[in-house]
Amino acid sequence: MIPSSSNTRNTLSILHQVPEGHVGVYWRGGALLKTIPEPGFHLKMPLITQYEPVLVTLQTDLVRDIPCGTKGGMMINFEKIEARLKLL
């Protein structure tokens, strides 16, 4: 089997770039590493560590008019609540 040029480049390179809007994922010896590099240039050990970029999607969920009760029995209405999620 002849490896593709992009796969060979990924395996043999020391320096790699994580593109904007992505995070990096590393494998060493088939095991997923805990390191998650942000966008930019990074170093890795060639032939030992494999790298793959993963697209990150930002999602904002908005919920309006939320009634909440306090411990003292008072009702409070929140006009809106926004939750921002980083999806991999």
UniProtKB/TrEMBL annotation:
Its main location: endoplasmic reticulum. One of its GO terms (biological process) is SREBP signaling pathway. It comes from the Eukaryota. Residues 17-79 form the Band domain. GO terms for cellular component: endoplasmic reticulum membrane. The keyword Chaperone does not apply. Keywords: Endoplasmic reticulum, Glycoprotein, Membrane, Signal-anchor, Transmembrane, Transmembrane helix. It is found in: Endoplasmic reticulum membrane. One of its GO terms (molecular function) is cholesterol binding. It is a single-pass type II membrane protein. InterPro entries: Band_7 (IPR001107), Erlin1/2 (IPR033294). PANTHER family: ERLIN, ERLIN (ER LIPID RAFT ASSOCIATED PROTEIN) HOMOLOG. Belongs to the band 7/mec-2 family. This is Band 7 domain-containing protein. It comes from Gossypium raimondii (Peruvian cotton). The lineage of its organism: Eukaryota, Viridiplantae, Streptophyta, Embryophyta, Tracheophyta.
